[in-house]
């Protein structure tokens, strides 16, 4: 019942109009109660409220993003292709090596290294940088050493590898002073080797400093950037006379360009070196030694893209000849760490000799 009908009903009731009800019906009283409880004008059941217009900012944002993407693709097409190719292709870093792998790493996309991406197309892309790629095992008491001493021996063994194969000054041909300081000065044969190897202008295969140290001739080759990729591990056991014998098996990947050619279009060659060094941390009560030094039991290397001529004391990358495949050399995969490297007695280089790398 509307308000007008209700007011008319009340007037007619007061005037005692014939036929008018004496009091409101139950429905009328309910309607009156609801009107008193409501505030404001009730909304009709056919009332229409138009929706608010939507702002169309989404289209503008989408258009802006599309324009930026097209601009990037136009300016850097190759980088975009490489980035897209790497998505989901297993380019995440490898976990640390804790045991000898069972097989060689899988084949990559076969991309050539560049000055800005010197490890491009190589398994080393996923390897750690520098010393981080050399895994140390947990230490425990062994031989004459307690746990803390074994931990120190492992750390100093890795320090030797870093000083011999990663020190930038040594890589540029300087004397490996830090590495030599970790060698037992009373080990006569090693000291004789060091004196001859680092002073001779025409080393022999037995006195080649490359047996222990990584070096490039300053006027012939230079490193690309300051990153050397590594992968390998240390192991240890009790050796002779209770010594702690530490064995290092590490592969180093050195990207280099011709000296003086630092442009972005310079040729990049990767010299790949795998070293095995066995170090003995002797009991000073049984062997004449000095604190913080160790004796060398054996050392050897496998090398590719480092030169195949007579020893010069330096790696000689094959610039301009990296794609040549000599018929008189055997082929090796320098990234295959599943096979052992044969250690020498400390006088000759073991392993592949002059080998041709199946990939670099």
Topology at a glance:
Elements: H1 3-14, H2 26-37, H3 57-75, H4 77-86, E1 128-129, E2 134-135, H5 147-165, H6 168-171, H7 177-180, H8 188-197, E3 221-223, E4 229-238, E5 244-258, E6 269-281, E7 295-304, E8 331-332, E9 356-357
Approximate helicity band:
25-40%
Largest sheet: 7 strands, mixed
**Segments where pLDDT lies below 50 for 5+ residues?**
81-89, 343-352
Please trace the helix and strand order, writing H or E for each element. Answer: HHHHEEHHHHEEEEEEE
What average pLDDT do the residues reach?
82
Question: Structural class of the secondary elements?
Answer: alpha+beta
Radius of gyration: 40 Å
Beta-strand proportion: 15-25%
Oligomer: single chain
Please tell me what the overall shape is.
elongated
Number of helices: 8
Overview of this protein structure:
The protein is elongated. The protein has eight helices and nine strands. By secondary structure, it is α+β, with helices and mostly antiparallel strands. The protein is 25% helix and 16% strand. About 5% of the residues have low confidence. The strands form two sheets. Strands 1, 2, 3, 4, 5, 6 and 7 form a seven-stranded mixed sheet that branches. The chain has two domains: 30 residues, no CATH class; 250 residues, no CATH class.
